[in-house]
Amino acid sequence: MNIAVSLCEKGDSLTALIQLDSIHVLYPKEFESIGKAKELSKKINSEFLFHRQEQFDRLTVRLSELELMFNKEKTENDLFTQYIHKMQNVERRWNQSFIQLHLDERGELYISSNYYGEQWLNHIGLRVYDGLFQAKTDSVPLTDQNNHHSEFMDTHWEKVSYTNGKDNGVIQFIADNAERNLKAVFLGQRQYFVVLEPFDKQAVKDALALSNALKLNIQLVKEIKELQLKVK
Predict the structure, then answer these.
(1) Nearest to 196 by CA among 119, 107, 101
(2) Helix axes 31-67, 2-9, angle to 10 degrees
(3) Among positive and negative, which fits the CA dihedral 138, 141, 147, 153?
(4) What are the pLDDT digits (tens) for 142-179?
């Protein structure tokens, strides 16, 4: 018990909680010590709860600011609400090649490379660069379910989605280097080059920020519920 109190005084509350939680196991008949340990644990958890709620309140404001830059959408095919950045009007770009963002309410974020042209690229990856600075996605084989092809008249359309981390740091690279004149090359049997527009780079930065905020929000809600049970 004295060790836990000393740890609290030093600001090491987490280790103190571990010490307190072990008292009823190590000393099952020391009822007075167990009672004091429970009271101190409740006090520490109450402090944690207060700080988490403060953090949650600040995050709520930040989420509201970030969400203003997105439209929310949920179709019958979507399990989760999708966040569509207002700068990425896909309908307006149906006949263009570009990098598209995909973000849902869980904070899950990935990109896809969309090619539109007269010849097949059969592309399986994407490289974003500016001079020697570059990042490259993992390959998504032509046979993969995330590599889509379609054709209408003499026009070819390809969409490769880099889910489950297959962007390999490309999203972070774009966000960190948005001030650079970034280019992208679609990698396949042929290559196709595009310049990343300023609004696309800003959209990536905003989406990454919202993604992190959404994930933190989910984590805080879980932690607050757990702490509320502990202080009852």
Answers:
(1) 101
(2) 30
(3) positive
(4) 999 999 999 888 899 999 999 999 999 999 999 999 99
Please list, in sequence order, all residues whose beta carbon lies within 8 angstroms of the beta carbon of residue 48, skipping any fewer than 6 positions away: 13, 227
Q: Per the structure block, which two tokens stand in for 205?
A: 């930065």
* Residue ranges of domains in the chain: 2-66, 72-216
Q: How far is CA 120 from the centre of its chain?
A: 32
Structure tokens given for 112: 């896809």
Short-list 123, 119, 66, 116, CA closest to 92? 116
Spatial contact of 130 and 100, defined as CB atoms under 8 Å apart:
no
The CA angle 98-103-104, to the nearest 5 degrees, is 150
Residue 145 structure tokens: 């379910």
Q: Which of 58, 81, 55 is nearest to 70 (CA)?
A: 81
**DSSP reduced 3-state for 24:** helix
Give the strands of the sheet with 123-130, arranged side by side: 133-136, 123-130, 183-188, 191-195
CA 196 to chain CA centroid, Å, is 21
Q: In this predicted model, what pLDDT tens digit does every residue of 98-147 receive, in sequence order?
A: 999 999 999 999 999 999 999 999 999 999 999 999 999 999 999 999 99
